[in-house]
Amino acid sequence: MSTVSATPAALDLIAEIVADHGPVLFHQSGGCCDGSSPMCYPQGDFRVGERDVKLGEIGGAPFYISASQAEAWAHTDLVIDVVPGRGGMFSLDNGREKRFLTRSEICRI
């Protein structure tokens, strides 16, 4: 089973978002639109699916991944980082000119 961690830049952005919106959670899906970007939502605004897997927490925020992605990435650790750009349309990093990005041994960027 993979694990999840965050870079200092990601932890700083999480703290900024939590200061603005309160507690958050992350979800990494296998959908076509969000690619390798985990989505950040206010806790309670996103319904975690029955087949979603909790990998751990980053910056005090739970991090979930779809079951299909968990299976595909079972043998690598995920590192959540921050890069310039726009976050997903419904993700709380949107509009901050920086966004979260998932890095791994499988998805080196």
UniProtKB/TrEMBL annotation:
Tell me the domain of life: Bacteria
Q: Which InterPro entries match?
A: DUF779
Protein name from the UniProt record: DUF779 domain-containing protein
